[in-house]
């Protein structure tokens, strides 16, 4: 989970439209929020990922659902409130269900910084406080049936292997500092850091693994000492550091 910013409201979501759809829901109890332009807008806010578990919502197996942070049962007046809507995968939305976030708060990535409440340990989410613990249990973020922990391990292990390969490329460049070796080294470095940017799937786990690896720290220092650490790499590094979920 990463911090998200709700930096726009769809122009079509006028007060009159919201009130009309809200009244319709309260009268019929039928869904009024499955509107493609609104779902597209929500996905834009979250880089086309589930706001909770960060799985890609562009994959057919991860069908997007409009999630109501304050649930419909307890808060029917907010069924079309833009500030109450999140893009979610079926797994997270289904597990959250009618949980009352007013009575038992959980992390809202649009208003909370997940790193203040959650951290990764052995590829499992852990809570730093009551809100973090409740978030994990309500959303079932360590779900064994869905193999979420296995997925995170595979991602982290692959990233670590890529870092080891990068150090080999670095050694090759230091011994033979020609343009082809430089391009291979820099391209691979950019590739790894791109995986740790907010718009990448499972960015929080990638960033956390990256910044906890001695190999990455060594790579960064060597690139800096050899004049290869660019401003773009620095920007990628800073952004990825901000979404890490450390204890």
**Series of secondary-structure elements, N-terminal to C-terminal:** HHEEHEEHHHHHH
Largest sheet features: 2 strands, antiparallel
Rg, rounded, reads 21 Å
Structural class: mainly alpha
Query: Runs with pLDDT <50, length 5+?
Result: none
What is the tally of helical segments? 9
Q: Give the overall silhouette.
A: elongated
Strand order of the largest sheet: 1-2
Strand content: 5-15%
Mean pLDDT: 94
End-to-end gap: 14 Å
The counted number of beta strands is 4
Helix content: 40-55%
Structure description:
The protein is mainly alpha-helical and 247 residues long. The chain has helices spanning 15-28, 36-45, 90-96, 130-139, 148-175, 179-194, 203-212, 214-225, 231-242; strands spanning 64-68, 85-89, 118-121, 124-127. The strands form two sheets. A two-stranded antiparallel ribbon has the order 1-2. The protein has a two-stranded antiparallel sheet with strand order 3-4. It is elongated and about 75 Å long.
Keyword list:
mainly alpha; two-stranded antiparallel sheet; two-stranded antiparallel ribbon; 7% strand
Task: Give the structure's gist in a few sentences.
The protein has 247 residues and is mainly alpha-helical. The chain has helices at 15-28, 36-45, 90-96, 130-139, 148-175, 179-194, 203-212, 214-225, 231-242; strands spanning 64-68, 85-89, 118-121, 124-127.
List the helices and strands and how they pair.
Elements: H1 15-28, H2 36-45, E1 64-68, E2 85-89, H3 90-96, E3 118-121, E4 124-127, H4 130-139, H5 148-175, H6 179-194, H7 203-212, H8 214-225, H9 231-242
Antiparallel strand pairs: 1-2, 3-4
């Amino acid at each position: 989970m990463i911090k998200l910013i709700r930096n726009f409201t769809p122009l079509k979501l006028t007060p009159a439209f919201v009130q009309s759809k809200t009244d319709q829901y309260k009268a019929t109890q039928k869904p009024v929020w499955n509107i493609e332009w609104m779902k597209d807008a929500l996905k834009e806010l979250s880089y086309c990922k589930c706001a909770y578990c960060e799985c890609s919502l562009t994959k057919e197996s991860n069908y997007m659902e409009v999630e109501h942070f304050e649930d419909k049962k307890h808060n029917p007046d907010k069924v079309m409130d833009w500030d109450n809507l999140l893009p979610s995968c079926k797994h997270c939305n289904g597990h959250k269900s009618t949980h009352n976030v007013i009575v038992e708060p959980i992390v809202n990535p649009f208003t909370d910084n997940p790193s203040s409440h959650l951290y990764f340990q052995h590829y499992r989410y852990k809570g730093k406080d009551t809100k973090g613990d409740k978030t994990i249990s309500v959303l079932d973020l360590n779900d064994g049936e869905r193999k979420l922990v296995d997925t995170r391990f595979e991602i982290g292990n692959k990233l670590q292997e890529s870092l080891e390969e990068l150090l080999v490329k670095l050694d090759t460049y230091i011994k033979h500092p020609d343009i082809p070796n430089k391009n291979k080294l820099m391209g691979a470095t950019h590739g790894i850091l791109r995986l740790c940017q907010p718009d990448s799937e499972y960015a929080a786990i990638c960033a956390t693994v990256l910044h906890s690896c001695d190999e990455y720290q060594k790579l960064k220092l060597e690139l800096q000492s050899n004049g290869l650490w660019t401003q773009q790499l620095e920007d990628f590094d800073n952004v990825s550091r901000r979404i890490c979920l450390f204890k």
